[in-house]
Amino acid sequence: AANATSGQFHSRKEESVTTVRAHFDRKLSELRDDILLMGSRVEEELKLAIEALNTLSTDKAHEVYAADRIVNRLRFEIEEKCFSLIVTQQPAARDLRTIMTAMNIIVDLERMGDQAKGIAKVIPHLLAKPIQDRPIELKQMADMVSRMLNQVLLAYAGNNADLARILARQDDEVDTLYAQVFNKIMVQMAQTNNPEQIEASYELLRVARELE
Questions:
Q1: Closest Cα to residue 64, out of 7, 8, 114, 13?
Q2: How confident is the model over 163-204, as pLDDT tens digits?
Q3: C-alpha to C-alpha distances, 175 to 44, 181, 182, nearest whole angstrom
Q4: What pLDDT shows up at residue 10?
Q5: For 172, what's the count of Cα atoms within 13 Å in the CB-facing half-sphere?
Q6: pLDDT at position 16, please?
Q7: Is the N or C terminus of the chain more exposed, i.e. has fewer CB atoms within 10 Å?
Q8: From residue 188, how far is each of 21, 124, 126, 194 by CA, in Å?
Q9: Residue 59, exposed/middle/buried by CB under 10 A (0-12, 13-18, 19+)?
Q10: What pLDDT is stored for residue 9 in this prediction?
């Protein structure tokens, strides 16, 4: 009878551990979904910022501001969930690394949103002092950064380390494009005595910096 009772106790204990683990895994899966949602919002914000830049649309710029508020809210909601998991679930070392990685990701995503908003802030200045000669590399940067953000979200969703490594190498290409934009804009600024054109060129440089 004692052996039977002991066996039942261990069985219930193992079942309890399994249930707790399943609950925690479900919470981690929800956390991943939340991050992907936030990433998709940042992706949309960046697309709006690029469209605002291409069309010099203040309406699109205001849409960027609204999108950024949503991104900021999501960041803090996810951060609260991360803290809650740490406090209430007592995660193992591996799980803790997963949660800390999630917290790092949402900080980076929020920063990307801020940089998209930084592009939107330039629009009124460019509208007041339009510049005809934009370096072609600026558009190439915008296209590449937009693709990279989409791909990095796919890499995260699929836990694809190979794709992540490819994307990390592509960052050097963005840096190269930024250097080309910087050099062309410096030449533009040096070749004109028009203060308005110099200011407009500087605003484009700000856009390139945000994209980089």
A1: 114
A2: 999 998 899 999 999 999 999 999 988 888 888 888 888 899
A3: 23, 10, 10
A4: 54
A5: 4
A6: 58
A7: N
A8: 61, 21, 15, 11
A9: exposed
A10: 47
Q: What is the CA angle 118-178-195, rounded to 5?
A: 65
Q: What is residue 95's predicted lDDT score, i.e. its pLDDT?
A: 86
Note whether 34 and 77 are within 8 A (CB): yes
Rounded to whole angstroms, the Cα distance separating 70 from 76 reads 10
pLDDT of residue 133: 79
Q: Both tokens of residue 18?
A: 């399994």
Two tokens, residue 93? 């070392």
CB 78 within 8 A of CB 131: no
- Structural contact between residues 40 and 112, judged by C-beta atoms closer than 8 angstroms: no
Q: Which amino acid is at 13?
A: K
At position 2, the amino acid (one-letter code) is: A
Question: Which residues of the chain are modeled with pLDDT < 50?
Answer: 9
Contact 61, 123 (CB under 8 A): yes
Phi-psi region of 56 (alpha: psi -120 to 50; beta: other; left: phi over 0): left
